[in-house]
Each structure stands twice: as C-alpha cells, then as structure tokens.
Amino acid sequence: MKKLFYGLYIIIALLSFIPISKIPLIKIAPINLILYLTIILLSFFIHELKECLSSVIVIFLLIFLAYSLYDFGLNYFKSEYTVNIFANFRRVILVILTIFIARREAGFKFAFKVILIMITISTFFSIFIHLFGEPFKSVRDLILFNTEAISLGKGERIAGFAASIFAFSYQITSAVVMAYGIYLAERKLHWIFFFGLLTLGLILNGERSSALMSVSCLIFMLLFNDRKKLIQIAFIVLPVIFTTFLVLNFSQPQGNHLNSNEQTLLNRLGEQIEGEFTGRVLQQLAGVVVTLKNPIYGGTDKAYQKELFILQSWLKRKKHFVVKLSFKEYPAPHNHYVNIGMHAGVTGLAMFILFFILLLKIISQFQENTRTNPNMRFYYLTTVYALFAVLGNAIFHNNGIFFGEITSWFLVGLVCAGSVARVRNQNRKTRNEP
To answer: In sequence order, which residues have a C-beta less than 8 Å from that of residue 252 and are 6 or more positions away?
Structure first.
C-alpha cells in the first residue's frame, strides 16, 4: 500500500508541474482522475487520517475552502474572474495525501525530492527550448495545447511547463532554495548540479522578485548554518553561480532592443525603465483604494481601472514623476495580498489573516519538531524557507497561495506533515499505513 500512495504522489506531482490537457474521449484532465482515485483510497484509512490531521490543520484547510466559496460566489455575481474552486479543492486533497505519506521521515524525504526533481525536469527542458528552440518548443506546445499557456521559443525567457513566465517563477524560486537545502542535509555533490541548473533557470526566467526571494533565503540559510562549514560550502556554491553567469553571458541574444520575453535576469537587473517603480506602487495603491471603497464585497476590474486612471492622472501633474501605465497592460495590482482584498473585500482579507496566523502556528510546531529529529533539521528548515520565498514572491505577482498556486500547496503539505511529527512518533504504526 505504501508503494501505491508513493506512486500516486509521483503522478500528481508530474501532472501538476507538467500539466497534460484533458483526455479527448472523456474530456477529463488526467490529474482529476488520479485525485478521484486518491480520495477513494484515502477513505479506507479514515482512522489513520484522524490521527495525523490535527485540529489546527483541519481549521486551516476549512478557512481556505471557505474563502474559495466566498470569492467564487462574489465574483460569479459580479461576472468577473474568480478562483477555480475545484482546483482549490484539489489542493486540499493534495495536502491530506502529503501529510499521509510524509508524516514519517522516509516519506518526507521522498515527497521533498519528488517536488524538487519535477521542477528540475521542467527547468531542464525549458533550458533546451531557450538554447535550441525546436523540437523542444513544439513538444511543450503540444503538452499545453489545451491551456492558456504562452508559447516561448529559442532565446526567450523560460516558463517550464507552467502557463506563463510568472507562474513558473514560483516554482523556480522554491526549487533553488530546496536544492541548496538538500545539499546541506546530505552533502552529496549531485545536488550541487541541481542547484546550478536551477540557478541557471532562475536567471533565464528573468523574474527579479524570484531572484530577490531566493537569494534572501539562501543568505539566511548560510547565516544559520554551522559556521565552521560555511567557507567549505561557499567554495562549492559560488563557483557554480559564477559559471552559470559566464554561460549566460555567451548565450545572450545580441542587440540592444530585446522584447520582454527575450530579457533574462541579467538584462532586467541592468535595465532602468523610466517610471517603473512608481508604476508598480501605483498599481498596488489602486488595488488598496478599491478595497477600502468596497470593504464588504470587494471591487471590480472596472473600479480598479477607474482608480488607476485617477491616480495616474494625479501623478502626471507632478512633473518629476513619469508613469507609463494602461489598464490593458496592468489589469491587476501585481500583489497577491492586495488582490485578495480587491476581489473579496475586508471579509476576504480577514479570512486570509486568520489563515496566515494558523499557518504560522503550524510552522512553529513544524520547527519545534526539528529539535526532536536532528537528522531532518535541514529538510524541515529548507521547506519553511522555500515556502516563505514563494509567499514573498506573491508580493510582486497576482497569483499566490489563496488563489491555489500549486507550488505553495506542495510546500504547505510538507509543512503540515512536519507539524504532526511529534504526534506520529507517539502513535503506533498500523500494518497497512505508509
């Protein structure tokens, strides 16, 4: 039975990070079929699930589902974009499955590595698209043909098998941190290869927020690591980063006029877009104003467009500000947490605050359990750092944990599994449980 659940987890991770479209004859996405099977199988282990699902985790997941229903209802009547309530239900099933298989040390290591390997495969394939274009581009387009994914080719920024460059940024942000953390845990050099490959992917993805969050978490991990080994690790990691930058310098497209899809992190860090910072602040401020003016039910895209226009007009009168924005180019605040308030009002924000408080409580228990299991210390801490890197990335993008962003929920599943580690050690292992 253990191997069956492990197999299901591999398939779910594969279909989450490399999403295959609906099967033509039955019009159902393969991941839905696998999750239906997972629900059926988990129903035979109700007793074990009751033991490993703490009350905090149950309330935590129920708040997420409650927000999904609330947001869906509000925006359905407003005839606007809403969260995918069925996708969010799948996230809850994913967390429960992760807790079930990762509440023991072997299962946690297995789930951690599956997530990392799947994102690495996606990154590796995208790097081939960036370097060579065809036939790798056509393979990606074929896999994603029934989605709204953008098509990217040779010399352009990479997006893995995600729908967009921005969606992939969440995956690559966490994977860089995870690769470095697993090296600290196991001290095996092949994880440095993973780290180098993912660092290359981070640069080719080109999202500055991802780089900021990844580097910040890596610095924290270095500071809290054993200082005696710090120099040794630096001698291994820094050459990998330096080599990655050299490779990129030789692979960059020539010319000064690169479109946004051709700009890697190296280009984007070096460029200065007039008014860009002011524009970003303006977008988020417009979302905040919409939330304050519509505290109960949240606002609409039309209301956001109106506030953005008003703020932009006001700033244009200040000649030392340069703002180049249009609603067509910036239809949302580019801040996940502002988005929550804009779509669901203060009620939605209150749900998220309670959700986040419970998440911190789960993380606190998770970290407490590292003291009783020193062998898992780096796995545990890396998972927390990776989760915070993804949550931080959402400050600069529209998607995020409350909208069901998939990487966040894989990591949440690991955090929840680690938080019940003490409980699991006190309970007797049954014959059939994984």
So the answer is: 264, 266, 267
This prediction has a pTM of 0.86
Q: Which domain holds residue 27?
A: 2-252+261-273+333-426
Domains: count for the chain = 1
Q: Tell me how far apart the alpha carbons of residues 416 and 252 are, in angstroms, rounded to a whole number.
A: 42
Cα separation, 300 vs 216, in Å, equals 35
The Cα–Cα gap between 215 and 147 comes to: 32
- Between residues 153 and 276, which one has the greater pLDDT? 153
394-to-316, 362, 402, 427 alpha-carbon distances in Å: 28, 20, 10, 37
DSSP state of 23: B
Cα separation of 299 and 279, whole Å?
Answer: 20
Residue 221 lies in a domain: yes
Mean pLDDT, rounded, for 79-92: 82
Length of the chain as a residue count: 434
Contact 202, 176 (CB under 8 A): yes
DSSP 43: G
Question: Does a structural domain hold residue 393?
Answer: yes
72 lies in some domain? yes
Q: Which of 51-55, 363-367, 418-422 has the lowest mean pLDDT?
A: 418-422
- 390 part of a folded domain: yes
- pLDDT of 251-263, one tens digit each? 444 444 444 555 5
Q: Of 94, 110, 170, which is closest to residue 376 (Cα–Cα)?
A: 110
Cis peptide bond prior to 331, omega within 30° of 0: no
